[in-house]
Amino acid sequence: MRQNTKLLARTALLSALTAVGAFIKIPLGVSSVTLQFFFTAMAGCLLPPLWSAASQGVYVLLGLVGLPIFTMGGGFSYVLQPTFGFLLGLIPSALVMSLLTKNSRRPLRVVVACATGLAVLYAVGLPYMALILNVYLGKGWSLGRLLRDGMLLFLPGDALKIAVAAVLFPRLSVLFDKKG
Questions:
Q1: In Å, what is the CA distance from 108 to each residue of 10, 51, 94, 96, 98?
Q2: Could you report the per-residue pLDDT of 100-120, keeping only the tens digit for each?
Q3: What angle (nearest 5°) sits at the alpha carbon of residue 82, between those of residues 131 and 53?
Q4: What is the pTM of this model?
Q5: Which of these, 14, 4, 74, lies nearest to 40 by C-alpha position?
Q6: CA dist 130 to 16, 32, 64, 77, Å?
Q7: Backbone angle region of 161, left / alpha / beta, with phi > 0 → left and psi within -120 to 50 → alpha
């Protein structure tokens, strides 16, 4: 029972930190550089697989029911934002990172897990962005523009977030063992 209480509290903390990360932003193109992925990576590295996915699922669900915790607000209409797919992608991204880090504290393993989680994030977010921009909004973005404005501009910042996660994770994992 105590173990589940710890996991629940840690899950809620990382969900809340992801929400805070949405407001630490630098506008860039159609989106912004935020710390959401960084806190998703921390959830993926520090929590067991289902709990890490739950932390991000709770974040997305709270935003969809109307709490203004996304970068540009909240509410169900947010599903029509081009960047909503990236919010959905946080859930499987956290799960994949957790599965790949397992109980290892090796920085290289964390980097590989986070890079894979980032690939999952883009695999969900970019097609969603293309769908909203080209079908719903009729913008007619080419694949090249979608890749440039939806991913390539963000990769240097993503690499920095992964590097910081790899440095912090071994230190934080002492406090957050994946067993609870």
A1: 24, 23, 17, 16, 14
A2: 998 788 999 999 999 999 999
A3: 100
A4: 0.93
A5: 14
A6: 29, 17, 21, 17
A7: alpha
